[in-house]
């Protein structure tokens, strides 16, 4: 299994993240090509080798023409959808921005649709986030682990005025993320960095036992008494002989006997879009012979509070059962195969006996089937055949 470990001892920002990814071997030209397709005004990624307290690193800067636009989420999603990014890269970028929008909506008491992106809607932040989504996809890892994250102390000036560190949106994004103590005066973790971290990281903890293959260093823009660096270590973990991996997830459960089918369907759809790992509806018989539905939701610990609030808001339930459980999963990786009608993204899972199973993404297959007037089965069969011929 290919593992990436983020050493966030000096926090994390979007430019530090992208700098570390490029330093770890991701081709800058490939990232720039994706950024160019967004239609941003003369946006160019520039990297330079610098030293922070005696340690070398790549410092990434986004050069662009001045602008004063305040974008909404739908503006940014339209840019991403109209770009040349792959399906996987578009999905990752939009997930990060959706997480940002949810945090901003929460702290400002508004809705995701009405959120104005200020700093994170600027060209440099869009480039950092979309560039990181492209680079992570190109890096091709199976799992991302990160260390606890320091936020720094003091105050920071944002579009809404002077705020204590962590900035309100940053704090919201770091719900469920383990924080590291820090007395450093200054903002170590930015909303952009926190959004990337909260969206993409699978687990938090110490450096796992692995054979390190490459290390990338991304430099922050500020200088502190310590090396202001984000370190990215990429390596392989031998999954033999177990051929499985495990992590900790949260299970949320509630029984509903007075909610309409439409209400439950709407809530289920919202849960999927909010980052649930799995949503299950089970018919149950409740007291006094009433038919009901048991709603089961699996999620990452960082998403548990958000999904709990969503269930209370969208259903008639008065209480939830919440438990932390260990999940055993097969090692997996993302791949893209070519069919006669276009590229199809999918997931490859490795079985305990070493064989691999490819599952094409339903949304992509469904879109190609509709465009080419084919059956879904024809597209899925072609995708599996293409994977088998590689």
What does this protein structure show overall?
It is a single chain. The chain is α+β, with helices and mostly antiparallel strands. The protein has 3 domains: 235 residues, no CATH class; 85 residues, Transcriptional regulatory protein pf0864 domain like (Alpha-Beta Plaits); 58 residues, no CATH class. It has 11 helices and 16 strands. The strands form 5 sheets. It has a 5-stranded mixed beta sheet. Strand 14 and strand 15 form a beta hairpin. The longest helix has 22 residues. The protein is globular and about 70 Å long.
Distance between the termini: 19 Å
Poorly predicted regions: none
Number of helices: 11
Mean pLDDT: 90
Structural class: alpha+beta
| Share in helix | 25-40%
What's the overall geometry? Answer: globular
Strand content: 25-35%
- Order of helices and strands, N to C? EHHEEHHHEEEHHEEEEHEEHEEEEHH
Computed Rg: 22 Å
Give a short account of the largest sheet.
5 strands, mixed
Q: How do the strands of the widest beta sheet line up side by side? A: 7-4-1-9-8
Total strands: the figure is 16
Number of domains: 3
Question: How would you sum up this structure in a few lines?
Answer:
This protein has 390 residues and is an alpha+beta fold. It has helices spanning 14-23, 28-36, 73-81, 87-108, 123-139, 168-173, 191-200, 261-273, 304-314, 362-372, 376-389; strands at 2-7, 44-52, 55-63, 143-146, 155-158, 161-164, 203-204, 211-219, 229-236, 245-256, 278-285, 291-299, 321-329, 332-339, 342-350, 356-360. It has eleven helices and 16 strands.
